[in-house]
Amino acid sequence: MSVYTFANKDFLETELLNGSLSDTSINNSNLDLLQTSNSLWQKTDITDSNCNNSVFNSTQFTNCSFFRSNMMNSQFINCSFMNTKFSGICLIKIQFDNSRLEKQLFDSCTMQRALLNKLIVQNSTFKDFEAVYARINNSVFINCFFELNYGSGSNGFSGAELKNCIFLNCSFSGYPMRGSKLKGCTFIGCSGEITDDIEAESVFGLQNYNCTDETTLINRNRAVCLINEVQNV
After folding, report:
1. Rounded Cα–Cα distance for residues 162 and 160 (Å)
2. Alpha-carbon distances of 161 from 11, 19, 137, rounded to whole Å
3. Beta partners for residue 88, in sequence order
4. What pTM did the predictor assign?
5. For residue 45, how far is the Cα from the chain centroid?
6. How far is CA 78 from the centre of its chain?
7. Among positive and negative, which fits the CA dihedral 161, 136, 152, 190?
8. How far apart are the first and last CA of the chain?
9. 14 burial level (CB within 10 Å; 0-12, 13-18, 19+)
10. CA-to-CA distance for 87 and 38, rounded, in angstroms?
11. Rounded distance, CA 232 to CA 97, Å?
């Protein structure tokens, strides 16, 4: 394993010139403004480091771990994540765009004002997270678990806006959707403590918050078509 301490973004960008980073541990480093594209990260850990205002474009992450670090205002565009963990990470104003996440863990992360757009998230867990005023658009969550534990002090999606999202066979605990705003969202086969207080418009499949206007019917058909496209991915 390669271990780097007090590294900087110029050093890491040089390491990534060959297109991959594998079996690497990065600690106590300043990686602010890191720029990387078309690269592969495998079994790489970033701990107690800063990686703010960075851009990851067309990057694949496999069996990676980000722990107790700052990634404010960073962007993940056209990326894929497999069995990757974000634990105790500051993800304020983070952007995930047109990306795919599978077996992903977000544990005790601050995601205020984050932007999640065009994501497919499968078999993943969001635990004790803070996504106040986040915006989640045009995304699909399949077999995911959303959990807020009493005493964690986390507010989940409170104040967040979710538009045109689909939740398929997801489980919820601790009312992580409490205080959120949902528009054009569909819940199919979901269970648990989803919410007891939301603003809902054209929402299908969420008990006590279903809409019965024509928009719901159109949204439902669109949702079923999208689910058919991604459920076998």
Report:
1. 7
2. 38, 36, 8
3. none
4. 0.86
5. 18
6. 13
7. positive
8. 32
9. exposed
10. 25
11. 21
Helix (H, G, I), strand (E, B) or coil at 169: coil
pLDDT per residue, tens digit, the chain (233 aa), is 677 677 777 877 787 777 888 898 999 999 999 999 999 999 999 999 999 999 999 999 999 999 999 999 999 999 999 999 999 999 999 999 999 999 999 999 999 999 999 999 999 999 999 999 999 999 999 999 999 998 777 889 999 999 999 999 999 999 999 999 999 899 998 999 998 888 888 888 887 765 544 444 345 566 666 666 555 54
- Tell me if the domain spanning 91-230 has CATH number 2.160.20.80: yes
Quick check: 99 and 124 in contact, CB under 8 A? no
DSSP 226: H
Partners of 166 in the β-ladder: 140, 186
Count of residues in the chain: 233
Task: With CA atoms as reference, report the closest residue to 163 among 200, 202, 195, 137.
Answer: 137
Sign of torsion, CA 166 135 219 190? positive
Pairing of strands 100-102, 120-122: parallel
Say how far apart CA 6 and CA 27 lie, in whole Å.
7
Separation of alpha carbons 119 and 136, rounded Å: 9
Place of tokens 């928009």: 215
